[in-house]
Design the sequence.
């Protein structure tokens, strides 16, 4: 696994991308990594463009802005348009429920929103995506994410988010076995 990751989580306000970035950052810190997490969003809290950036590294982080993303999560057409041409070395994960299937070696579409709806809470699509990305990239351990979710949330909310995370993990296992989605 790599020592440094630069991750962009982009979509619309209300999709939980800022929270997702904070959870990812906290998991990396728990693993002893240095982390920078930033966020930006439009004046509209729901529906406007929203982005969270996370840099994690075993070494000191000198420059605190993403220069070359390694991983992108795009949950809207606008986000996909912004980052689809980032280069073949950038792994781009997107919600195939919202954006449809796209060709490209570095484009990874998964039905995050459809799976979140099956769980009974559409707002967990971001956590499902986090589970998929963690397993496929190795940027953080799933156990670290579970620990953060357990400390950030309580009761049924914690249970739902942990279930969503493992839904993403199981999705990767299913695909790895060659089972259809």
Sequence:
């Amino acid at each position: 696994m790599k020592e440094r990751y630069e991750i962009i989580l982009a979509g619309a306000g209300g999709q939980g991308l800022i929270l997702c970035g904070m959870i990812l950052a906290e998991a990396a810190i728990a693993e002893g990594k240095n982390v920078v997490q930033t966020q930006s969003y439009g004046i509209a809290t729901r529906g406007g463009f929203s982005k969270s950036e996370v840099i994690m590294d075993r070494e000191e982080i000198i420059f605190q802005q993403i220069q070359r993303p390694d991983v992108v999560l795009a949950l809207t057409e606008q986000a996909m348009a912004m980052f689809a041409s980032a280069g073949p070395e950038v792994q781009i994960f997107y919600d195939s429920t919202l954006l449809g299937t796209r060709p490209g070696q570095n484009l990874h579409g998964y039905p995050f929103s459809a799976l979140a709806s099956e769980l009974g809470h559409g707002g967990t699509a971001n956590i499902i995506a986090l589970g998929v990305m963690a397993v496929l990239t190795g940027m953080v351990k799933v156990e670290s994410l579970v620990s953060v979710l357990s400390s950030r949330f309580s009761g049924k909310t914690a249970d739902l988010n942990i279930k969503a995370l493992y839904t993403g993990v199981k999705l990767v296992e299913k695909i790895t076995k060659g089972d259809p989605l």
In short: The chain has a mean pLDDT of 91.
